[in-house]
Design brief:
Elements: E1 19-25, H1 31-39, E2 43-47, E3 54-62, E4 65-71, H2 83-95, E5 99-105, H3 109-121, E6 126-131, H4 133-138, E7 141-143, H5 145-152, E8 155-158, H6 167-177, H7 191-204, H8 216-224, H9 228-236, H10 240-257, H11 261-280, E9 281-283, H12 290-301, H13 306-324, H14 327-347, H15 352-389, H16 391-403, H17 413-418, H18 423-428, H19 436-445, H20 455-465, H21 470-495, H22 516-550, E10 551-552, E11 555-556, H23 565-568, H24 572-580, H25 591-599, H26 606-614, H27 622-629, H28 632-644, H29 649-689
Parallel strand pairs: 1-4, 1-5, 5-6, 6-8
Antiparallel strand pairs: 2-3, 3-4, 7-9, 10-11
Helix pairs in contact: 3-11, 7-8, 7-10, 13-15, 14-15, 15-22, 19-21, 20-21, 20-27, 20-28, 21-28, 22-29, 24-25, 25-26, 28-29
Length: about 700
């Protein structure tokens, strides 16, 4: 097959055939809202192969035909500058969806039509969902939809996704377009460029390349635009001679034009778009438009000082909403699981080890999982609300300047700040970032944000050793966490992400009243993903820790070991702690402190209760024991270590579900190393100063 040929289109035929449909569009055009309305919640979330960018897929039945809808990442074009653009273009070229639906913001037609032009040049079957048509009318925009349809030779369906207007027409359009041929579309790039395109096409007609998924004109255009992905594809096929001929054609064309070929081609596309909007879009004067309202509000919300104050207040309310409102539900679940269900399992007529496995192993793991759900759900409700109103885009704008200094975009500020409440939802909230690079780097530094579960440890030790300066000492711990995160981001931005930038282009969407259904759907999607992907890991790890606590080198110690310090001292957990005790000799920590840190892997707040069990005292009397076992300096070094060392089990399980086992192990090892070094520095520098 010559590299410009397309395989012949499949007919609708068998109703049992799965019809693949891609949904694409610029960011903030209502694409996710439309996807949720089309799928009706019948969708699942995963990751695109090899990356952490979210992939949403849903299946629906239209007139007896099963249709798979794939929500592609939000993009501005199909030139592969960003990972999102690479994913979207690769899917269209390789998966060859039968239909591509582009969601367009009707209030910003000029920006959105650039992607339309690129899709049409790919020779795909395209349907336009002209979304937010009601807002366009309020803006005084009159769009001649029929004229635009005839000009582009494609179906355009007006929609209001949040109100489900036009969704039925869109589903009917999918079936209507299945057997129609792709629309013919061609932009005239001028005589010189067109001649060069034709010369490259003639060369391509003589070459053999499998499954490119596009016509020779599209390939020729992208070769002229120095498309590195297409060039790499040719190299893999051993077609370097073709690339050399193309380079000669480009060099000759460049000499004649005296300007950048790519820039000239982009200008031609925008000239074409301008001609379309001038012909088919009219603007009438309106007294108070949405744009005017948005501009007025932005003067306040994006103000460098006032906007920052409003953001901090909004974040405080978000935390208060997600943690305080969820607190009664969390407490209820805790009492129900730790009290009633735990007692019930203990009283079952089963062998002691089996009832302990169920109560102290499986149930504890399920409990850790379920207790997160109310906080996560309310937090995601808040984030989804801010996202759909358009406010998160302003937060990004506010923080982008500062975050760029450490190699990240402004979008990461929300996950990082959520990390002070809990690292689990912080990691899950990185899904709103989209960019794989930003997600990985952000997830690497989130565990350094001191979550609320570490606070009981700080309070205990500061109450014993730093009572007069308790708040100042605790603030210094938080400062160390933030500083370590910044240094880590700067370091890995230079080492692992060298040459990559996190800059991005983003439209400020208008302020909108969000759809309640869409907010709940998005929140549930994220919760469901956590339950499915991290839940089993948490339960398995809890069972392993339970087993290591009731078994030791001597064999089975009995379930009493969980509460008996003498028995626990002979367990595998204690044996491992004693084995590595020499490593912590510079810190003057015995095996009991090390064991409590190992139990802290289950949950950081467990460190305090573990210390009371291991020292064989009530929690109320723990302060007295610690005052004789630690000095202020060793106590501070332990607080620094608990801040920076291995994240808790739920966080590790969430990381594993998001970026894989290999990357999670790397993060755990890196954080253990940093924690050890920082605790040692505290002792060394403190010893010199005191």
């Amino acid at each position: 097959m010559s590299c410009h040929e397309l395989s012949s289109p499949t007919t609708l035929g068998n109703k049992h055939e799965l019809i693949k449909v891609a949904i694409v569009g610029n960011p903030n055009v209502g694409k996710s809202a439309l996807f949720n309305k089309l799928t009706g919640g019948n969708a699942w979330v995963g990751n695109w192969p090899g990356v952490t960018v979210e992939k949403k897929t849903g299946r629906i039945v239209i007139e007896g035909h099963e249709v798979e809808l794939v929500d592609l990442p939000g993009i501005y074009g199909l030139t592969p500058y960003s990972l999102d653009e690479v994913i979207a273009r690769k899917f269209i070229l390789e998966e060859r969806p039968r239909i591509v639906i582009q969601v367009i913001n009707a209030t910003n037609l000029e920006r959105n039509l650039y992607l339309t032009i690129q899709l049409l040049e790919m020779n795909v079957k395209l349907i336009i969902a002209l979304n937010m048509i009601d807002l366009a009318e309020k803006e005084g925009l009159e769009i001649d939809i029929n004229g635009l349809m005839n000009q582009l030779n494609i179906l355009i369906i007006p929609t209001i996704a949040v109100k489900e207007v036009g969704v039925d027409n869109l589903t009917k359009a999918i079936i209507m377009e299945l057997n129609s041929p792709p629309p013919f579309f061609k932009i005239n790039y001028g005589p010189e460029i067109e001649e060069a395109i034709q010369r490259i096409e003639r060369i391509l007609d003589k070459c053999e390349i499998a499954d490119v998924g596009a016509n020779s004109r599209w390939i020729a255009i992208h070769l002229l635009e120095d498309d590195k992905d297409i060039e790499e594809l040719f190299r893999k096929r051993g077609l370097e001679d073709v690339l050399r001929k193309v380079v000669e054609i480009k060099r000759d064309l460049q000499t004649r034009l005296g300007e950048s070929i790519e820039v000239l081609m982009i200008e031609k596309r925008y000239q074409y778009i301008l001609s379309l909007t001038q012909k088919y879009v009219k603007r009438r004067h309106v007294k108070e438009s949405l744009t005017t309202f948005t501009d007025r509000l932005d003067r306040i919300l994006t103000h460098p000082i006032l906007g920052l104050m409003i953001f901090i207040s909004t974040l405080y309310l978000l935390f208060k909403f997600s943690f305080d409102v969820a607190s009664p539900l969390t407490n209820l679940l805790d009492v129900l699981i730790s009290g009633h269900v735990h007692s019930f399992l203990k009283t079952l007529p089963l062998p002691t080890i089996i009832s302990s496995l169920l109560a102290d192993g499986v149930l504890q793991g399920v409990g850790i999982l379920l207790i997160f759900i109310p906080n996560l759900f309310f937090l995601f409700l808040g984030i989804s609300f801010l996202e759909d109103t358009g406010y998160l885009a302003r937060v990004t704008f506010l923080s982008d300047k500062w975050m760029n200094k450490i190699g990240l975009s402004g979008r990461v500020i929300i996950p990082l700040l959520i990390g002070f409440g809990c690292n689990v939802p912080a990691i899950l909230s990185t899904r709103v970032l989209g960019d794989d690079r930003d997600r990985r780097l952000t997830m690497l530094i989130i565990p350094f944000m001191s979550c609320s579960a570490r606070l009981p440890i700080y309070l205990l030790f500061t109450l014993v050793f730093f009572k007069e300066n308790q708040m100042l000492v605790i603030l210094s711990i938080y400062f160390i966490g933030v500083t370590t995160a910044i240094i880590t981001a700067l370091l890995f931005n230079k080492l692992l992400f060298k040459g990559q930038t996190s800059g991005y282009v983003m439209d400020m969407p208008p302020y909108l009243i969000p759809s309640v259904g869409n907010i709940f759907a998005k929140s549930w999607e994220r919760i469901k993903s956590f339950l499915v992907r991290a839940g089993s890991i948490i339960v398995i790890m809890m069972v392993i820790i339970w087993a290591l606590s009731i078994f030791g080198p001597e064999g089975y110690l009995g379930v009493e070991a969980l509460r008996n310090p003498d028995l626990l001292s002979r367990s595998w957990i204690a044996s491992f702690s004693k084995l590595i005790e020499p490593l912590f000799k510079p810190f003057n920590w015995d095996w009991r402190v090390i064991s409590s840190l190992l139990f802290g892997f289950v949950a950081k707040e467990v460190v305090v209760s573990s210390l009371s069990v291991l020292y064989n005292v009530e929690e109320a009397d723990l302060s007295t024991v610690l005052s004789t076992s630690f000095t202020p300096l060793t106590a501070y070094s332990l607080m620094v270590f608990t801040l920076l060392y291995t994240p808790c089990m739920a966080t590790a399980a969430t990381l594993r579900s998001e970026i894989g086992l290999k990357n999670t192990i790397f993060i755990i090892i890196y954080e253990l190393f940093i924690a050890y070094i920082m605790a040692y520095l505290v002792l060394s520098i403190g010893g010199l100063l005191l």
